[in-house]
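HUMAN: You are asked to prepare a plain-text protein record giving the amino acid sequence and the backbone structure tokens, both parts labelled.

ASSISTANT:
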Amino acid sequence: QLQLVESGGGLVQPGGSLRLSCAASGSTLSIIYWKWYRQVPGKQRDWVATIDTHGLTNYVDSVKGRFTISRDNANETMYLQMNSLRPEDTAVYYCQGRARSKAYWGQGTQVTVSS
């Protein structure tokens, strides 16, 4: 079965950059969309960015111009490049591989933006 593992989270100062990775193992042929979500305690899990199998990308307004989602098919890894980070970007970030009737989730990686 498909397994997703996030990495790259950590502590960064406001204005700094971080690159998150989501490594996939197993078959990814059923995946239609690859997505990043984030969640903070007491709030719902919010969608951040999507990339489809054609490379088309979409972002939530609050990260447009700062975040870039990409996927390396050869390495079966999805990335989220985060620049100009703000304290409000602090959250646990989750990657998702979305099939027609099932969503695969990683375990999450903590991103903390603070001085």
User: Anything to note?
Assistant: The CA atoms of residues 50 and 58 lie 5 Å apart. The chain has a mean pLDDT of 97.
